[in-house]
Amino acid sequence: MPDSPFLDVRQATKSFGATRVLDGVDLAVKRGEFVSLLGPSGCGKTTLLRLIAGLASADSGNFELDGQEIARLPPHRRDVGVVFQSYALFPHLTVSENIAFGLKAKGAPPGEITATVRQFLGLVHMESMADRSVRALSGGQQQRVAVARALAVKPKLLLLDEPFSALDRKLRETMQIELRRLLRELAITAIFVTHDQDEALIMSDRIAVMNRGRIEQFATPEAIYARPATPFALEFVGLSTRIAGTVTTYDDAGFVTVETPQGPLRAKGRFAVGSPVLLGIRPECIRFGEGGGENRIAPVLTDIVFQGARVQAHFESQSDLPILIETSTGLPSELAAGMPVPLSFAVEDTLAYPAEVAR
Prior knowledge:
Blueprint: E1 7-16, E2 19-29, E3 34-38, H1 45-53, E4 60-65, E5 68-69, E6 80-83, H2 95-105, H3 110-123, H4 139-152, E7 157-161, H5 169-186, E8 189-194, H6 197-203, E9 206-211, E10 214-219, H7 221-226, H8 231-236, E11 241-250, E12 255-260, E13 263-268, E14 276-281, E15 287-288, E16 295-297, E17 301-307, E18 310-315, E19 323-327, E20 343-345, E21 351-354
Parallel strand pairs: 3-8, 3-9, 6-7, 7-8
Antiparallel strand pairs: 1-2, 1-4, 4-5, 9-10, 11-12, 11-14, 12-13, 14-21, 15-20, 16-20, 17-18, 18-19
């Protein structure tokens, strides 16, 4: 069926001893899509990747790739390529020999091997290094060879386990764009494991935000950032101002008034009067002064952080939840630590969550 997922994982579970690492995970990936599994260490993202690759066995669940059940197939019969965090290149082989390795293992004709190796050397811009030992390559060059080797066998699905973690920031950013270009050029379906939110936002068609063995939200980067489904997604993806309070009124239009340490604030949501809630506002939605929206607070400024193109202002909070504003247009010149600063933000930009599930 045309609308069927290309990769369809249903109710995947995995435990190590008494620890449940995956707790009934569903993941449906479209053909040609680039999906990131994003979450902190220990959330289950690498375990899920290993189950899809066949490098570990699920306790239960269904795994279908291109309409075929793969859970009982060995890794070499799943038609899945894997790029590991360590790259796992063969140090005694040259760049070309590493790329050719999988093709030789599959028994491809010599002419096809030569042509394919040449093609992927060009795609990863490594033509001049074809005969060089991989031990003589930089980290970024090794990463390119690892990707080329995985793609040379033309897998149905490419899995990448934090392949940029060992690279410096500038090279990592370059490789993110290059890999995204390459995969789209080849129309490859890919799943990418990362704990770096910026990396996931830059590279992904959709992001699966994982926490404690579950997927809390699976959506486009824009949707996850603008409308995080849970307090964890709000906290883990991007910065936010978070203010706890108690609902005092609820109207028929679907808005609540929340009493907070910063005063009464309004948000869209359906909560009973008396419910504890957590309000969340992205820092760029907050404006200096009282003209930026119906919600107004006046917290005390504690610090200003210069970040090149952007500036952050941090404010005193009556709890351990942060209050901050971020701007690319600069801060008012009269600001000084210790002074109360009027801030405002729109009711439509104020997100509300049940406080009992807040982290």
